[in-house]
Amino acid sequence: MDPNLGDDSAPLNNGAGGRNPVGLPWQNVSREEWNDYRWQLSHRITSVASLAGLRYFSPEETAILERVNDLYHLGITPYYLSLIRLDDPADPIALQAIPGTGEYFGMDVGEDDPLDEEKDSPVPGLTHRYPDRCLMVVTNFCSMYCRHCTRKRIWALGEGAKTEFELGKMFSYIKRHEEIRDVIVSGGDPLTLPTARIEYILKGLRKIPHVEIIRIGTRVPVVLPMRIDDELCSLLSKYGPIWINTQFNHPREVTEEARQACDRLLRAGVPVNNQTVLLKGINDHPEIIRRLNTQLLKAKVRPYYLFQCDQVRGLEHFRTRLSKGIEIMEALRGHTSGLAIPTFVVDVPGGGGKIPLMPNYILSMGEQRTILRNYEGIIVSYEEPRADGRPSARPEAESLPSRADVYRLMTGEVKALIPAGNERMARRRRRCESASPTT
Ligand SMILES: *Cc1c(COP(=O)(O)O)cnc(C)c1O
Ligand code: SF4
């Protein structure tokens, strides 16, 4: 069994949060404190030294991790830390949160801003790439710093939030561009801002009549679910329509706390969509993604995108081949609920934006028929409409060899090619047999 699949239901060590691992500095925390996001924020792990008591690092590793930490900061909420199985060096939650030596050794591969977000930025912090929507970076702070973050370059700018002056410049750009109807508020993590500052941003956007929808990109439901409190929910419902895009990457992140946070958002009229990043060693297995997405559906969260990991400096050890994403899509389509199937996209270098990729379902095309294949490998002939109502010319039947092949599908002689041993066809036969009277 793949170790990453793990056992979703096995409880970790008990503690105030119900999952507080032994050996952590907050053994005696009360449930009230644990469920208070302010307590979570002020008790984050932020240094390699404080990790040392939780996990073994060799002196060499420690030296490298210190160097990684000089460049890219470290931040793990006690809640997210409690999801980690500290005795497993390949734990998929740990790999997202605890710095690794790969970040240092991969430093010469990739770029800081491969997607040219800054070249497509008319005002600092705002990226306007697509015709009718734009993205605003409103803070550099995150409660948990993902090791695989695409926007790691902004960490060098410190943990500050954009000032009202800087936000004002972004608002006036959006105001001047009436084609913008969808604004993505991103970061950093916008929901780590004080509630009053979130209100300032939403209010500013709602003053612009052509802004139809606001999207918030946040990992708070995954790494700090207690932040989704009543005060925040009523604020979000006041300035709707708001959509939230979050990032669950592994089924073990879909905890009861996370489910409840998503439920509170939904009750406030805020739909939650998920954008998974495909990460080597963390979730690059069809069964992990299938399980993640069916868990998300139970939490009423819709899997929206599956992202190819960007070619960002220091992320090379997380990057999979494109074929891995295609393989995962092949394993999903037809095999599980369509609602559990995201779009696999690669954001191409140079600012070309997101490009969807999937297995090939079109095998061939002729003027009269298109040859498609389904998830079972059944090859079908799809009849196209005849614009002029007249059939195309046909040669004499006897001149056509009578083999069942793809070309016969195209000529319309054969309707479908069905692989031997197809389970669905066997089921149909069994039903027919049991329905027919026996003598
Ligand atoms: C991803 C992205 C968007 C939103 O894309 P959708 O496909 O609409 O979700 C907008 N702007 C930028 C710069 C992006 O990277
Ligand atoms: S929450 Fe988003 S912005 Fe913050 S570190 Fe993770 S991926 Fe980057």
What does this protein look like?
The structure is a single chain. This protein is an alpha/beta fold and 439 residues long. The chain folds into three domains: 3-105, no CATH class; 126-357, TIM Barrel (Alpha-Beta Barrel); 362-435, no CATH class. 31% of the residues lie in helices and 15% in strands. It is built from 16 helices and 13 strands. It has a nine-stranded mixed beta sheet. Helix 13 packs across helix 14. It binds pyridoxal-5'-phosphate and iron/sulfur cluster.
| CATH fold category name of the largest domain | TIM Barrel
Radius of gyration of CA atoms, rounded to a whole number: 26 Å
How far is the N terminus from the C terminus? 49 Å
- Tell me the helix content: 25-40%
Please supply descriptive tags for the structure shown above.
439 residues; alpha/beta; TIM Barrel; 3 domains; nine-stranded mixed beta sheet; globular; disordered N terminus; binds pyridoxal-5'-phosphate; binds iron/sulfur cluster
Secondary-structure blueprint of this entry?
Blueprint: H1 31-34, H2 37-42, H3 48-52, H4 59-71, H5 78-81, H6 94-97, H7 101-105, E1 126-130, E2 133-137, H8 164-176, E3 182-186, H9 195-206, E4 213-217, H10 220-223, H11 230-238, E5 242-246, H12 256-267, E6 272-278, H13 286-298, E7 302-308, H14 322-332, E8 343-348, E9 353-356, E10 362-365, E11 369-373, E12 379-383, H15 406-411, E13 416-417, H16 423-435
Parallel strand pairs: 2-3, 3-4, 4-5, 5-6, 6-7, 7-8
Antiparallel strand pairs: 1-2, 8-9, 10-11, 11-12, 12-13
Helix pairs in contact: 13-14
Bound molecules: pyridoxal-5'-phosphate (PLP) and iron/sulfur cluster (SF4).
